[in-house]
Design goal:
With 413 residues, the protein is an alpha/beta fold. It is globular. Strand 5, helix 2 and strand 6 form a beta-alpha-beta unit. It folds into 2 domains: 315 residues, Glycosidases (TIM Barrel), CATH 3.20.20.80; 86 residues, Immunoglobulins (Immunoglobulin-like, Sandwich). A 6-stranded parallel beta sheet has the order 8-7-6-5-4-11. Strands 16-15-21-22 form a 4-stranded antiparallel beta sheet, with no helix packed on it. Helices cover 27% and strands 21% of the residues.
Length: 413
């Protein structure tokens, strides 16, 4: 149903630039592939899966989590999302569980097998996306799980195993990300992934074993490798941790290489400002919400607050006729939902439909000033655009959003 192809710097679906079928979409956005990081779409844990019976779920069920993602895809599609990333070794969690205590690896130790349960969930997900007109970016390796593979031969085996599976099933709506952020420290144990010359060889191997599916590899926010970009069919970048200016500078650097390939960011943050920069530069952007979409079990729906605001702004940019949000729903104090707690901790953020109108946000606990956030996303205990520190469950939390025009908006329990 959905055949992805690439023509110079554009992505095409069924021979036509993505979004060219939308009557109200500005031509400058034709050929983009707006996407989201749904990396835990087939996640499981062989160590202690019962710890993920939380966030309103009485049991942990990997099959049900995949099915909930499939059920959520039509809503995301209606807002303009046309692709998402899912990981064979998952990703995160960032806030609650040390990934080094998780075993989420379908390859075994030698990389020669693909766990049938993972394969079935992935197949179900790809086919559901195909029926909708969506593309799946299948990510092979994650830094905290690659320790499960014993050596370089196992890495090559895993690339062949996963790529061959995708080829044998005949998928036409799949792209490959060989590794998520190849330059992070744990990958040093596997030089084939960590060093650009090794990764370039893995990109070639994945392309050959997959029967010619588009292949790329990402690095951390701001990391670039021309060698990997030249080997890739599309240039994968990450924007997480970057300001709008730094993101702009990174894209300009890639463009200066004159490789005539599409640039796709498949991981940034909830920062709508970065999305706007990306789209104006003609670069596909990847929404990354590590609270609602990367802590298992994820809530795959377009949840209130950050998810909805991203979806709404994406739809507006693409010219889609979606119901407007009333003015009193342009802000939301995220993280106070009764089920969004773990080990007595919460992660609070003040989400805004138009964050460019926000000067700063003051947070209060029991009426006392606790924190001020100046940068999007506006979080308590801000560390960078994709990471924040927790607060304890106790106390009544409120926020005061101070707008650039001097007005204030009060949010709270």
């Amino acid at each position: 149903m959905t055949a992805l192809s690439i023509r110079r710097e554009q992505f095409l679906i069924n021979g036509r630039p993505v979004y060219a079928d939308l009557p109200g979409c500005p031509e400058k956005y034709h050929g983009l592939l707006m996407n989201a990081r749904f990396i835990q779409g087939i996640f499981d844990d062989a160590e202690a899966p019962e710890r993920f019976a939380r966030f309103g779920h009485e049991t942990w069920d990997p099959e049900a989590q995949t099915d909930r993602l499939i059920a959520a895809l039509p809503e995301w599609y209606a807002y303009g999302l046309r692709a998402f990333t899912v990981g064979l070794q998952g990703g995160g969690p960032c806030f609650t569980t040390d990934n080094n205590t998780i075993t989420n690896n379908p390859f075994g130790t030698r990389g020669t097998t693909l766990d049938p349960a993972y394969a079935a969930r992935l197949d179900r997900l790809i086919r559901a996306a195909d029926a909708l007109g969506m593309v799946v970016i299948v990510s092979f390796f994650y830094c905290a799980q690659v320790r499960q593979l014993k050596d370089g031969r196992a890495i090559r085996n895993a690339v062949i195993t996963a790529s061959s599976f995708l080829h044998e099933r005949g998928y036409t709506n799949v792209m490959i990300e060989v590794a998520n952020e190849m330059d992070v420290g744990p990958f040093k144990a596997h030089p084939l992934i960590f060093h650009p010359e090794g990764m370039a060889s893995l990109v070639d191997l994945a392309r050959e074993a997959s029967g010619g599916l588009p292949v790329g590899c990402s690095g951390t926010g701001g990391y670039l490798s021309r060698e990997v970009a030249e080997a890739s069919d599309f240039i994968l970048v990450h924007g997480n941790g970057l300001t709008r200016q730094q993101y702009y500078n990174m894209i300009q650097t890639v463009r200066s290489w004159n490789l005539s390939k599409p640039i796709l960011c498949n991981e940034d943050s909830q920062a709508i400002g970065n999305m706007l920069v990306s789209m104006e530069l003609g670069v596909s952007w990847g929404y990354y919400n590590n609270l609602t979409k990367q802590e298992p079990p994820a809530d795959w729906s377009v949840t209130r607050g950050e998810d909805r605001f991203f979806a709404q702004r994406m739809a507006e940019q693409l010219g889609l006729a979606v119901p407007a949000l009333p003015g009193d729903e342009h802000f939301y104090l995220q993280g106070l939902e009764p089920h969004m707690t773990d080990a007595g901790k919460r992660w609070l953020r003040a989400a805004a439909l138009y964050p460019e109108q926000v000067n700063y946000v003051d947070f209060y606990c029991d009426g006392k000033h606790a924190y001020r956030s100046h940068d999007e996303p506006f979080t308590v205990n801000f560390k960078c655009s994709w990471l924040q520190g927790p607060v304890e469950n106790g106390g009544v939390w409120t926020a005061e959003v101070v707008l650039a025009d001097g007005r204030t908006v009060h949010l709270g329990q």
